[in-house]
Amino acid sequence: MTAPSVPRTAAERGKVAPARLAHVVLRTAPERVQEISAWYQAVLEAEVVFGNPFLQFLTYDDEHHRIAVLGFPGLAERPVDTFGVDHVAFTYDTLGDLVATFERLKSLGIEPAFCIHHGPTLSMYYQDPDRNQVELQIDVFETHEEINAYLEGPFLKNPIGVQFDPDDLARRFHDGVPEAELKKPLEGPPPPPNAAPAH
């Protein structure tokens, strides 16, 4: 069996592609702009770099804005079972950062809707006040080779992953369980279909 290949960048393939993903724009009712903005400020530790009653630009790094919230008159509530973007994911550098974020948000009354160890990532899914889904995650493996080996092996048996208890994860983290043990892919059945997001 040949070793799994590391994905090549577009540049390595001789293609012109974007340098990075710049931002996500969310539409909401004008009267909910401040509420949605405040939620993303809390969840992402973001700050408002431009704001008025109808438009907010938020960032948490050196990009001028990562999230924009736009108040758009006349919008209807989105039905649950419709086509569209499933979620937006944000990666943390360490398990400690993810645990600290979970605990900080829980203290603010913001808790994940569900948590899934996908194998390549350990992921917590939140819903903003408009039911947009946000994934906060860490990568489990250190190298592309390890990720690809997992994708070509155990991932084939369960491409969704296994649900986990974030409170238990936080407790075990603080108890000093080695991170390698906490990040290890879980054995078990996938979650039910109504709690099985794409990665």
Question: What does this protein structure show overall?
Answer:
With 199 residues, the chain is an alpha+beta fold. The protein folds into 2 domains: 60 residues, 2,3-Dihydroxybiphenyl 1,2-Dioxygenase, domain 1; 101 residues, 2,3-Dihydroxybiphenyl 1,2-Dioxygenase, domain 1. Helices cover 24% and strands 23% of the residues. The strands form 2 sheets. Strands 5-8-7-6-9 form a 5-stranded mixed sheet, with helices on one face. A 4-stranded mixed sheet has the order 1-4-3-2, with helices on one face. The relative contact order is 0.15.
Give a quick set of tags describing it.
199 residues, 2,3-Dihydroxybiphenyl 1,2-Dioxygenase, domain 1, 2 domains, four-stranded mixed sheet, alpha+beta, 9 strands
User: What is the arithmetic mean of pLDDT?
Assistant: 92
Q: Largest beta sheet, briefly? A: 5 strands, mixed
CATH class of the largest domain: Alpha Beta
The secondary structure category is alpha+beta
CATH topology of the largest domain: 2,3-Dihydroxybiphenyl 1,2-Dioxygenase, domain 1
Total number of strands? 9
Number of helices, counting only DSSP H or I runs of 4 residues or more: 5
User: How would you write the strand order of the largest sheet?
Assistant: 5-8-7-6-9
Strand content: 15-25%
- Counting structural domains, the number is 2
Q: Unreliable runs, pLDDT <50, ≥5 residues?
A: none
User: If classified by CATH, what would the architecture of the largest domain be?
Assistant: Roll
Helix content class: 10-25%
What does the radius of gyration come to? 19 Å
Order of helices and strands: EHEEEEHEEEHEHH
Distance between the termini: 27 Å
Tell the overall outline: globular
